[in-house]
User: Which sequence fits this backbone?
């Protein structure tokens, strides 16, 4: 069954897959961060993902980042999220220009919004886990908004 | 042999008598005199196993250890019962004040380091190298970058190793964390060496770069070495790794940089938390740290050496045609601006906002980066 993007169900499904696949994520190590994913567009959405040890323990949609305790938020227009997930769906991994680091590094196509440098650095400390988390969308049947 | 003990234990007659007694079964259990009450250590989160934080209890906790450790100069672990008087030998640690080494949350960084270890030989998809054709000019430029990075990683291995035995053994969590850093850095030197040798080979070693690295190794105190390596140097290198992932010729190199980046960011986080702890607890060292950074930041410009710059430009522009080079220059200019900006932000949050005003990097930014992107 197709799953809509952006939607709470989409991120819940990624969390479900992560929690059902402990071997892959335990190999990558502890991951402890609260991050946001923001989809910009006519109908903007903000999702909060809590990574805790080897799991994604909480996923929710928020109306504002206030009080969410985000370490960092990845922010991009819907079209870019779509390009990124479509790239992942081709081979299971993104093409070089579509890794989370590449998208967010130069030109800031994807913005990393943060307040504390330590929160910002968590994006890099847990990069392999967060990349593996989004790569799980490789075989999802996605219905684009 | 340069250490001859004050007692020759092999001929000590008391010891020989005691051994004879013990062999007869006469144990006196003297080692249980003054033993501590058993403490209640609980695994707060079974998924993590038993963590260092779980072990922060009672007399074993760093919280209950004085800021200056005076009773221990040997290698006793924090909480062990020391022999009365001054019988424990003095192994000469020079870092006996907590603020000399400590960083907020250092226990968590140690745990994170242990759980996020990886293996160069098996975790980089080396076999995929055969799948991709890399143009010679990009391959050679990439190997020039690997050569400089190998030099950087050598010093990053040596610096924590150099300071560990100067630290009082009561600061075991810091010693443990920097031991994980030493292995992380050795792994980074390994990955860059292997990648270079699997391709165009090692190219030219850097004179300017090695002078900068010498500055890190020769710092007068651990805090100076830490602020130079962890906050300034590794902060810059973290951005360089991010940039290198971005301009990597294939997914193999991208994976390599994703993995090294994770370790590097952890080292930066510890450095930031050490600097913060130092500024909170020992603000009188601020002028000294600032004076040191004035020179360290000058040294650091050595990492912007022409060989590295040119190779990054070729990689960033994906070639050597005038148009590629123009594009590469713009890409590299943007990285460098980011490196400096992120460093100032970290320094500010650690309690040194004045770096933004007094740093020699500002002039470099004017002289080099603006010119590059113009
Ligand atoms: Fe490193
Ligand atoms: Fe490092």
Assistant:
């Amino acid at each position: 069954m197709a799953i809509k993007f952006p939607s709470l169900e989409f991120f819940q499904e990624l969390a479900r897959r992560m929690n059902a696949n402990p071997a892959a994520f335990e190999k990558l190590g502890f991951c402890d961060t609260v991050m946001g994913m923001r989809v910009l567009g006519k109908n903007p959405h903000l999702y909060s993902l809590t990574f805790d040890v080897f799991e994604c323990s909480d996923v929710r949609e928020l109306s504002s980042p206030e009080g969410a305790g985000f370490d960092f938020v990845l922010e991009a227009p819907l079209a870019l999220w779509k390009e990124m997930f479509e790239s992942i769906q081709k081979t299971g991994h993104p093409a070089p220009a579509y890794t989370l680091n590449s998208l967010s590094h130069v030109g800031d196509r994807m913005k990393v919004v943060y307040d504390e440098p330590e929160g910002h650095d968590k994006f890099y400390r847990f990069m392999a886990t967060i990349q593996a988390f989004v790569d799980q969308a490789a075989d999802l049947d996605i219905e684009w908004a | 042999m340069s250490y001859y003990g004050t007692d020759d234990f092999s001929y000590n007659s008391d010891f020989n008598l005691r051994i004879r007694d013990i062999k007869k079964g006469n144990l006196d259990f003297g080692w249980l005199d003054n033993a501590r009450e058993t403490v209640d250590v609980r695994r707060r989160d079974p998924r993590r196993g038993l963590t260092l934080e779980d072990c922060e209890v009672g007399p074993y906790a760093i919280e209950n250890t004085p800021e200056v450790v005076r009773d221990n100069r040997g290698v006793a672990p924090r909480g062990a019962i020391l022999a009365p008087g001054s019988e424990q030998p003095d192994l000469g640690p020079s870092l006996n004040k907590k603020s000399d080494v400590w960083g907020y949350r250092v226990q968590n960084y140690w745990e994170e380091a242990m759980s996020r270890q990886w293996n160069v030989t098996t975790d980089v998809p080396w076999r995929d190298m055969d799948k991709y054709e890399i143009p010679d000019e990009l391959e050679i430029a990439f190997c020039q970058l690997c050569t400089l990075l190998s030099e950087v990683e050598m010093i990053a291995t040596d610096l924590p190793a150099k300071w560990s035995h100067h630290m009082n053994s009561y600061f075991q969590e810091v010693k443990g964390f920097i031991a994980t850093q030493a292995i992380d850095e050795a792994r980074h030197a390994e990955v860059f060496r292997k990648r270079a040798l699997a391709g165009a080979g090692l190219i030219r070693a850097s004179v300017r770069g090695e002078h900068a690295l010498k500055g890190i190794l020769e710092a007068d105190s651990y805090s100076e070495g830490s602020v130079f390596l962890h906050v300034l140097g590794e902060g810059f290198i973290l951005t360089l790794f991010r940039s290198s992932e971005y301009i990597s010729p294939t997914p193999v190199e991208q994976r390599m940089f994703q993995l090294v980046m994770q370790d590097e960011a952890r080292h930066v986080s510890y450095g930031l938390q050490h600097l913060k702890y130092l500024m909170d607890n020992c603000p009188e060292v601020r002028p000294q740290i600032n004076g040191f950074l004035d020179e360290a930041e000058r040294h650091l410009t050595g990492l912007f050496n022409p060989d590295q710059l040119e190779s990054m430009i070729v990689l960033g522009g994906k070639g050597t045609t005038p148009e590629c080079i123009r594009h590469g220059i713009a890409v590299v200019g943007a990285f460098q601006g980011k490196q400096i900006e992120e460093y100032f932000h970290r320094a500010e949050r650690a309690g040194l906002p004045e770096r933004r005003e007094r740093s020699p990097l500002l002039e470099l930014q004017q002289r080099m980066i603006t010119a590059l992107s113009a």
Remarks:
- The first helix of chain A runs from residue 8 to 19.
- The CA atoms of residues 49 and 81 of chain A lie 16 Å apart.
- Chain A touches chain B through 27 residues (CB under 8 Å).
